[in-house]
Amino acid sequence: MTIAATALPSERVLAQLGDTCSGRGLHDLAARLHDLHAWIADDLRDLEADLARLDGGASIVHRSARHLLDLGGKHLRPMCVALAAKLGGGFGDAARELAVAVELIHSATLLHDDVVDLGDTRRGAPAARTIYGNAASIFAGDWLLVQALQAVQRAGVPGMLDRTLATIDEMIRAEAVQLENRGRINGDRRDYFHVVEGKTAALFRWAMFGGGSAGGLDDRACSALERFGLHLGIAFQTVDDALDFDGDTAVTGKALFTDLREGKMTYPLIVAVAREPGLVPVLEQILAGPEGEPPPEPLRRRVVDALRSSGGLEQCRALARQHAAEAIACLSSLPAGRGRDALATVAEATVQRES
Amino acid sequence: MTIAATALPSERVLAQLGDTCSGRGLHDLAARLHDLHAWIADDLRDLEADLARLDGGASIVHRSARHLLDLGGKHLRPMCVALAAKLGGGFGDAARELAVAVELIHSATLLHDDVVDLGDTRRGAPAARTIYGNAASIFAGDWLLVQALQAVQRAGVPGMLDRTLATIDEMIRAEAVQLENRGRINGDRRDYFHVVEGKTAALFRWAMFGGGSAGGLDDRACSALERFGLHLGIAFQTVDDALDFDGDTAVTGKALFTDLREGKMTYPLIVAVAREPGLVPVLEQILAGPEGEPPPEPLRRRVVDALRSSGGLEQCRALARQHAAEAIACLSSLPAGRGRDALATVAEATVQRES
Question: What secondary structure, in 3-state letters, does chain A show?
């Protein structure tokens, strides 16, 4: 598929994902992605116009926030809000506010994460903190969080502000667990899932519940959507985990081994160290290496070999497929139709993504 | 006055302030502080029990937040909420939630500020970031902010959540201006007041308005209280400015010249550089000095001499007195009584404080 130069970030993501699926012979999935795109193109355009309009002024704090937002991103979380809302009464004003809010909350966490992890690149470009400094990124994250909460307030969906605060609380708890474990070779799956559910899946759950709620769906439907969001979030994160080892950096915009170098245990590593304890000293050597530099080639090769021989990478992708399937199963109680099909398409396509 | 070993932070602050006033021959003010203390002692005890109860768990993120809260602080902002509420129907549950919220918002900003300013000490003790790291302090600030907003929600005072978000937005804007100007000898009074009103006075305004609102006062009374808060906040901050140069470090718990070394223009410096442009290269030398070290004695002496000869310190204290008087004038439309007297006492005592 040719991608127009004027394409919006989400249009590019959907088009690239369609190409990936076609390249893998998944022509039906590619066609369904194309349909999905046609169905929500106007909604995404509205959403991206809203995001482009957010303007705090010319200070380095507000420019830091703008810098990150202007890099685009996949906009998968707002897309979840839009699709959930369209299952009900449509992507109206309230849903649009929530779609903006979810992207701003996500962006706020990225700004703070980049300071915490000393991340230099984000979305294939210099991270805001490398241009405007750590201090500006800290306040920029605070600012985006406030803007997000104001958008939730404007949406006026009953109970949604409380749900937002509880979700952010859960995200911070997950960050706390991750921080405690940073730099430790920790094979504890409970810690791993605590972090994934809190850092990633909680916001997908919020997006699905919020979109459904703003679209006027009843509590039972919203709960089903929320469970869908949980599994979609885990599928999304486990694909990310795998891409840290076998992704194409030109496509992901992120150097390989970034998670590992930031001291984060990902699912493929958990599988690999359980099967091959000899990998532990190799990982420790990588963690002890100089910050900001890729690990030496022989160490990298040993990790990749261990991930292959232990089945760590394959099991990680199988876990992603399993959660995508569980996500789709959560949709069974919802009325059949274009909206439900679109969500199933998102779940299936998520495990195919290369970026 | 003897201070019991079991005294709460706010009890110590009020007792010390009373001693200061007595020492200066202000016996009437000291007696009024004593009365005020007796009047709100139970309320402060309740509030401090609420703050002590806040527990996020054992992670370094939550321990960072706990560390700062356990250092006490003056609790002047929650005291403002309590006094404003007592002008109306009393310090009930809603006002107590807002009193907790204002202290948590303030604490969240301190945690982020210490990371931004690389502050090593806070309240005479090691800053949380020096014990648990910058990353933990960033997330701890985020966590306290969420806890504060949840408390505001629980308070259930109509419009208060929106007002809280607008106030935090204003605080971040002031942080942004301060960050832009950091390390520059900027004599612009508009920038100075923008920062003081946003960083300090905005939260005092919020506390007074919120307390009045939770206490059931009408809009007119709440607006008067809000204006009182604005002037009290400016008086409070300008006293802080002066103490950075002439405070007793054993009492303030903060090294002298901290603001200057963090590249912040305070009011005494603005007056001094306008009168004595020869001070500018001296300040530039101090700013260019090694981080974390006090400026050499000869440079310090030149600054202190210039602050005295230019009248910078005296004008700063006069400004504080003026705003305390304006704060008291704002109370004229409120019903006379113990509540109004207590607020006037707070404003008068603020300019006497030594810590």
Answer: CCCCCCCCHHHHHHHHHHHHHHHCCCHHHHHHHHHHHHHHHHHHHHHHHHHHHCCCCCCHHHHHHHHHHHCCCCCHHHHHHHHHHHHCCCCCHHHHHHHHHHHHHHHHHHHHHHHHHCCCEECCEECHHHHHCHHHHHHHHHHHHHHHHHHHHHHCCCCHHHHHHHHHHHHHHHHHHHHHHCCCCCCCHHHHHHHHHHHHHHHHHHHHHHHHHHCCCCHHHHHHHHHHHHHHHHHHHHHHHHHHHHCCHHHHCCCCCHHHHCCCCCHHHHHHHHHCCCHHHHHHHHHHCCCCCCCCHHHHHHHHHHHHHCCHHHHHHHHHHHHHHHHHHHHHHCCCCHHHHHHHHHHHHHCCCCC
Using only the alpha carbons of chain B, give its radius of gyration: 20
User: Which residue, B198, B197, B199, B222, is CA-closest to B212?
Assistant: B222
Q: Which DSSP symbol is given to B55?
A: -
Report the predicted TM-score, pTM, of the whole model to 2 decimal places: 0.95
**Could you state, in order of their start, the residue ranges of all structural domains in chain B?**
9-350
Q: Quote the pLDDT of residue B355.
A: 82
> What residues form DSSP beta bridges with A122?
A125
CA-CA distance, A51 to A34, in Å (whole number)?
A: 24
Cα B105 from Cα B112, distance rounded (Å):
11
Q: Give the tens place of pLDDT for each residue, A183-192.
A: 899 889 999 9
**Has the ipTM of the complex gone over 0.85?**
yes
Chain B contacts to A (CB-CB under 8 A): 56-57, 59-62, 112, 115-116, 134-136, 138-139, 141-143, 145-147, 149-150, 153, 161-162, 165, 168-169, 172-173, 175-177, 179-180
Q: What does residue B141 show for φ and ψ, rounded to 5 degrees?
A: -65, -45
How big is the CA angle at B248 (ends B246 and B249), to the nearest 5 degrees? 110
**Do A141 and A164 touch, CB atoms closer than 8 A?**
no
Domain A9-350 matching CATH 1.10.600.10: the answer reads: yes
Q: Report yes or no: A244 and A256 within 8 Å, Cβ to Cβ.
A: yes
CA distance B327 to B349: 12
Question: Which one-letter DSSP state was computed for residue B337?
Answer: S
CA angle (B189, B103, A179) in 5-degree steps: 100
pLDDT at A249 over 70: yes
Torsion, Cα B298 B303 B306 B312, to 10 degrees, reads -160
Q: Quick one: which of B238, B246, B243 has its CA closest to B304?
A: B246
For chain A, what's the residue count? 355
Say whether B122 sits in a helix, a strand or coil. Answer: strand
Question: What are the distances in angstroms from CA A66 to CA A3, A34, B342?
Answer: 24, 30, 46
CA distances B19 to B3, B155, B237, B338, Å, are 10, 35, 21, 22
d(C-alpha B209, C-alpha B198), whole Å:
16
A:B CB pairs within 8 Å: 107
Minimal Cα distance from B161: which residue of A? A153
Positions of chain B with pLDDT lower than 50, given as ranges = none
What dihedral angle (degrees, nearest 10) is formed by the CA atoms of B84, B87, B88, B93? 50
Find the CB nearest A115 among B138, B150, B165: B138
C-alpha closest to that of A240 among A227, A258, A228, A225: A258
